[in-house]
Structure prediction request, 177 residues.
Amino acid sequence: MTVMPLQKPRQKNPAPDEVFLMQINALAIGTRMPNWVEEGVRNYQKRLPRHVDLTFQALPAAQRSSGSTQEKQKQKEGELMLKALHEPTYVIALDEHGKNWTSVELARQLESWLANQPHVTVLIGGADGLADSCKQRADYTWSLSSLTLPHALVRVVLAEQIYRAWTLVQGHPYHRE
Prediction:
């Protein structure tokens, strides 16, 4: 299994006794993202406080071949994603058929995760979507939008929404109703 980082994790020099309150890892199919994706994600990672660690791991898409179906490709990608999970973790599958959250609802979820599930993994499927095995493993299915979004854009939107939720929890004026 080859796991390629989407970008370098933000540099942290934690004190020896510092502990992350929250680790959110996004596993995403697709390794060749435009520079604007990496820059956008990195922008929101830097804005988060040191004790909230948001990382992205890019996993290679299944090889396309004439004898392979979309379902087989999705299945291979799903197996790769499930192998990359660092248990124990609370798994959220991103899927257009999942539940939509408002920014305020996401902030409430973030508070709940901070208290109960400090290790969260978000699964972002490839061009053919997310494998059924990933959806079955997920503890929750979340829809960023009922629209179909480009996979590159999903990464930036996810990072921004996690940051927005954090600012709501902290009472920071970034979010306006």
